[in-house]
Structure formats: structure tokens, C-alpha cells
Amino acid sequence: VRMLLHAAVSDVSDDVRRAAVMALGFVMCRHPKQVPKLVALLAESCHDHVRYGAAMAVGIACSGTGLASAVETLKQLATDSSDFVRQGALVSLALVLCQHNEVSTPGVTEARKLFEKSVSDKHEEVLTKFGAVIATGIIDSGGRNASVSLTSGSGHLRMSAVVGLAVFTEFWYWFPLVHFLGLALRPTAFLGLNRSLKMPIFDIKSNAKESMFAYPKNGPPEKVRDEKVSAVSLSTTTKIKARARKKRADKEEGKDGGKEAGKDGAEAGEGGASGAAMEVEDGESGKAEVEVEPAFTMMTNPCRVLAAQEEYIEMAERSRYTPIDANKKAGFVMLRDSAPGEPEEVVASSFVGIGPVGSGAAQGSAAAEEEEPGPPEPFEYTEPSGEDAASNPPTGEPAG
Asked: What is the pLDDT of residue 400?
């Protein structure tokens, strides 16, 4: 860390300074809470390449954590004067807030609106728009069922994820390298398997509210209604209309003067009935009960379990299956069956065949049901003679 900080502030090359700050994110990936404080001064540097590296370092180390300090740092960098610093801030903001909703991490909706605004703004720089497009894909990566993680559930480094994320950061030089981010994605699911490697159907209890780890709301942006502008009228026109309204009011008062006395008695009688009606309505409104969200959630194997949700996961009471490793709460979980002799209900698996180009779904399913061809019959290979070799040259070589 000391070597990287020294290179970040003293090297003469912009590329070296940027890479040194970004490398802090990889080095500190197991201690994400310390990274926002570590790069706080670098994020305020007068050198734009250093600020970009600070944004990417926060995104790499704090990916999927939703840390409030990381989000605050990145939101400040998202308003930077440099276009590529804003690009890095938007990409890192998506990495940090991936699979988080407004209940667990306030500010997710605001970040999504920021991405949409950057993409649709005609006056935004191209580099910033490119970062916003990538961020929109990252925050919903894997159908919102995967998250970027450099470590496994046991805390070990995933080398494929480290390599993928390292190559992903090189989109600075060549944008197709963005696709290497897929190597760093880790599915967030619970898949319980029995001794036959099949998924039995059983209940899993999550001791947290359903809204805490629900799918984040995603949909088209809200349409802003155009406010109607009142028409401008001349002062003389306004005075004429006011005089006309006054004349109509005077005439109506003269006609309705005799009728008001008769209406007073009727209104007095209706007042009691209306007061009783108000009391009834108030009584009915007081009976309305507010639905209280349960403090736990029941799920069925297989199910979606986030990294932050693992501490709340446990097997349902009187469950037939228990995990062999009690500390494993996500991924592929091998189960111990307490009633191996009884029949069990498993998740039905289906295989979809891939037929030839242009074939329909029926041809694909029929191809899957066909048996694989057997091995060829035994045969003896003989070298071709000179005449046969000249008349039948090997494929890819010219004759003669």
C-alpha cells in the first residue's frame, strides 16, 4: 500500500499514477470499509487521472457492499469537471450498489436516475455517456441475480474474478475489454443438493423482512407532465371581463334573494343528518388497519440469497434436510437427509436441445431425445499409394 501511494503522488506518468491508485482497490478488496478513507485525499487531487483511479479503486474494493461512505465519495466524483472522472464514478457507483434496493441502501433510486439522466442528456460528453451505459448494465447484471465479488464465500480470492476485473479496467484503452467483467460475477443463489445431486423441494427461512432483500424496482422513467402556461391578457380586457362578472353577480343576487329564506329551514334539518353521516364515516376510517410486514420470509429451494442475507438464513423448523456444512448458506449446498428411505420431491429438470440452424423448438426437443451415435466400427488404416495421393490430395492442400 505504501509503494502504491508513493507512486500515485510522485510518478511523472499519468498512466502509472492512475494504475497505482486503481491497484489499491485490488490490494484492499478484503477490507472494503477502509478504502473510502484511504483514497479520500486522492479523490480531491488536482490531477484528474488520480481522481479517476480513486473512483475505480472504491468501486473495485467495495463492489456489492453498498457502503454509505463509498456511495458518498462516488456521488461527489460523479459531478467532477472531467468527463472521464465522471465515467469512472458512474461505473464504480453501479459496482457498489449492485443488487441493493432503496430499503437496504437509501440512494439506489437516485443513482439509477443519475444513470438515465447521463444517457439521455444530449449535452453530456461521450465518455460520460459510455460510463453511464456500462453502469446501467452492471447494476442489473445477471438479471439482478449476480454480483461482482473478488472473494469466495469462505474468503479466498477468486483468481478468475481478479483477472476478469483487472482486464475490465483496461477498457480505458480498448472498449471491447468490458466483456471480461463477466468473469468477476458471482451468482447469488442457494442450491441445495441431495446425494443424487438433485434439488429437493423444502423450505428455507430468512429472518429478515422480504422488502430488505427484494429485487430493486426497475422500470421506465416517470413521465414529467408539461405544466400548462396561462394565456396572457391585456389589462383592458381584464377590466371588461371583471365588470361583466360583477353585473351577472348582481342580477343573480336579486333573483335568489327571496329563495334564501326558504332554504334556511331545510338546511337546518339537513345539518343534523350530515353531521351523523360524518361521524359514521370517521368511525369506518378508524377501523382500517395498516398491514404489517412479517419479520421473516419463507423461501423454497432453489432461491435467491444475497451475500448480506446469508447471516439471516436458516433451515425451517422440522425440516427433513440439513446442510452438511452448517456455515454454508449460499451457493451449492450439500444436504443431509434425515429420512433417506422416504420418497422425496425434487425439482424437475428439463433439457433443451439445439437443432440445426433455422429449425424450430420441436426439432430441437426431438434432437435432445435422440440417442447419441455409437462408436465407429474397427478398421485398418493404410497409406495411400503415389497415384492415389496425387489424385486425392489432403483437404486444404492444392493438387499437383
From this structure: 42
Place of cell 430499503: 103
Residue 350: pLDDT band with limits 50, 70, 90: low
Classify the C-alpha dihedral 153-159-165-168 as positive or negative.
negative
Provide the residue type at 259 as one letter. K
Contact 10, 42 (CB under 8 A): no
Q: How far apart are the first and last CA of the chain?
A: 66
DSSP state of 232: P
d(CA 391, CA 388): 5
Backbone CA torsion sign across 113, 115, 120, 125: positive
**Top-confidence residue, 215 or 50:** 50
The partner residues of 186 in beta bridges, in order of sequence, read 147
Helices (H), the chain: 2-10, 14-27, 35-38, 48-61, 68-77, 83-97, 108-120, 126-139, 141-144, 159-168, 235-286, 361-369, 386-391
DSSP-assigned letter for residue 207: S
Hey, what's the cell of 270? 339537513
Closest CA to 150 of 318, 28, 333: 28
CA-to-CA distance for 30 and 135, rounded, in angstroms?
23
- The C-alpha angle with vertex 232 and arms to 231 and 237, in degrees rounded to 5, equals 115
Helix 48-61 / helix 68-77 crossing angle, nearest 10 deg: 150
- Three-state secondary-structure class, residue 205: strand
Question: How are strands ordered across the β-sheet holding 313-315?
Answer: 297-300, 203-206, 313-315
Beta 321-323 vs 331-337: how paired, if at all?
antiparallel
In angstroms, what CA-CA distances link 27 with 167, 269, 375? Answer: 16, 82, 52
Please report how many Cα atoms fall inside a 13 Å half-sphere around the Cα of residue 234, on the Cβ side.
3
Asked whether 148 and 180 are in contact (CB, 8 A), the reply is no
Top pLDDT among 235 and 210 is at 210
Q: Which of 80-94, 208-222, 385-399 has the lowest mean pLDDT?
A: 385-399
- Residue 175 is classified by DSSP as G
- Residue 220 — pLDDT band, cuts 50, 70, 90? low
